[in-house]
Please model this.
Amino acid sequence: MPVFDFRFTVPAPVEAVSEFHFQTGILKALTPPLMIMKVHQFDPLADGSIGRFTMWMGPVPVPWTAQHSNVSPLSFTDTQIAGPMKFWKHTHTFRAINERSTEVHEHIEFEHHSGLKGLWSRLLFPKPALYALFCYRSWVTRRAATRIWQEQKSAA
Model:
């Protein structure tokens, strides 16, 4: 089964990174501006919570439903329960490097369908596109978690 791993460092404590990821509007925030997405449902992050959205790849809608599991302040997993992939399991892990920085590890296990349906998912999600998406997401996460940390320090 193919795997995609992406790691990056955030100049903020692990608590700020976790707080950012637990916000209900995060999916929209982590979506690049040129990618059209409509969120239909995004439950607060908890075991069993659901995220339902539609992405548009040009004029073609791509519906996706994910369920969250293994939710803790330092990690959670979203697994596609309906969507374009045969299998998609994405684990997010946050590890404190020190008091002021955090490593974020994005680990995705995925499998394409066979036949034409698999061709479609391979066109939608080649590894270079995943890399570009997670570069964008790392930039957004760094900015947001740093802002949260600064606000926490100002309030203290």
About this structure: The two ends are 47 Å apart (CA to CA). The first strand starts at residue 3 and ends at 10. The CA atoms of residues 79 and 89 lie 4 Å apart.
